[in-house]
Amino acid sequence: MRRPTLEAVAARAGVSRATVSRVVNGAANVKPHLRTAVMRAVEELGYIPNSAARSLVTRRTDSIALVVSEPPSRVFSDDPFFSAVIRAVSQELEAADRQVILMLASSAAGHARVERYVAGGHVDGVILLSMHGAEPLPASLSRSRVPMVSHGRPVASLPVPYCDCDNRGGARAAVEHLISRGRRRIATISGPPDMTAAQDRLGGYREVMAAAGRRPIVATGDFTRESGATAMRRLLADEPEIDAVFAASDLMAVGALGTLRAAGRRVPDDVAVAGFDDIALAGFSEPPLTTVRQPVTEVAACIVRTLLSTDPPSAPVILPTELIVREST
């Protein structure tokens, strides 16, 4: 069977070909009764718009690039943060009748591939996720003049709109909670120094420790379970008297729990542990983990709204976090 054409839909609906084109391309200047007639004809004939031709007319692809500056081994690891963000962004875009294109850019070749794809007009917008340090991608993509929003505060000084959670405030709440539990020597396992989420969480820890007149004790990880275990071993060797640890991610906190268990330290009796993220594993760790819940779904919704808005880029949006107290503290 031949594929129904635009002309066939026009004949069935009793309207012009131009009217059908305006309806299927989402134009607003169509009378309601004509739109209803066209949509009825589309359904009856099983007409499917030619996406390539429609893109030429509307200059829209209905596709959004989600660009992640991490290697596949990190994105598709045991860290549920990435899958949670990808799922949330996909759901929000689907509700807006858009599709997401996942692009990984952790190398120079990856950066070049993303730049070519975006500059080629294949997407209507870009969402940046997990940017590191002096990342060249935001600057190069901005030259394509494609709308762009960052998931989290960008490191660079480029005026890229962004939505984020209150990383600094969440860290402050966790450390203040540890102090309220009577802990005296509170260490932190921070994330990668070239990522703003890690910088802000470390900043929140330092602020509370300074206000309490405590000496900061810092070990650095990379948000993975393995780095949390390694950092905890280093802390126990260098600072054996610590009685609490704030880890800047739940996976690092879970790694720290394993190290403490192997060292014969009881949690929370000997060492209290708090994390950040509130991943599903946090509620099932041994013991269940006190953590800071970040609003993954709400941040994704904010990003999609900002990206698809016809208004000028808004001021950054920082959404609140929530301290979830469990048995580890």
Short note summarizing the structure:
This is LacI family DNA-binding transcriptional regulator. The protein has 3 domains: 44 residues, lambda repressor-like DNA-binding domains (434 Repressor (Amino-terminal Domain), Orthogonal Bundle); 126 residues, Rossmann fold (3-Layer(aba) Sandwich); 127 residues, 3-Layer(aba) Sandwich (Rossmann fold), CATH 3.40.50. It is 44% helix and 15% strand.
Round the mean pLDDT to the nearest integer and report it: 90
The CATH class assignment of the largest domain is Alpha Beta
How many helices does DSSP assign?
A: 13
User: Which spans have pLDDT < 50 for at least 5 consecutive residues?
Assistant: none
CATH superfamily of the largest domain: Response regulator
Q: What strand order characterises the main sheet?
A: 2-1-3-4-5-11
Helix amount: 40-55%
- Fraction of residues in β-strands: 15-25%
What is the first-to-last residue Cα distance?
A: 67 Å
Number of strands: 12
Can you tell me the overall shape?
elongated
CATH architecture of the largest domain: 3-Layer(aba) Sandwich
Tally of discrete structural domains:
3
CATH topology of the largest domain: Rossmann fold
Biggest beta-sheet profile: 6 strands, parallel
Walkthrough of the structure:
- The chain has 329 residues and is an alpha/beta fold.
- The protein has 3 domains: 44 residues, 434 Repressor (Amino-terminal Domain); 126 residues, Response regulator (Rossmann fold, 3-Layer(aba) Sandwich); 127 residues, Response regulator (Rossmann fold, 3-Layer(aba) Sandwich).
- It contains 13 helices and 12 strands.
- The strands form 3 sheets. A 6-stranded parallel sheet has the order 2-1-3-4-5-11, with helices on both faces. Strands 7-6-8-9 form a 4-stranded parallel sheet, with helices on both faces. The protein has a two-stranded antiparallel sheet with strand order 10-12.
- Strand 8, helix 12 and strand 9 form a beta-alpha-beta unit.
- Helix 1 crosses helix 3.
- The protein is elongated, with a radius of gyration of 25 Å.
- The termini are far apart.
- The mean pLDDT is 90.
- Keywords: DNA-binding, Transcription, Transcription regulation.
- This is LacI family DNA-binding transcriptional regulator.
- One of its GO terms (molecular function) is DNA binding.
- Pfam families: LacI, Peripla_BP_3.
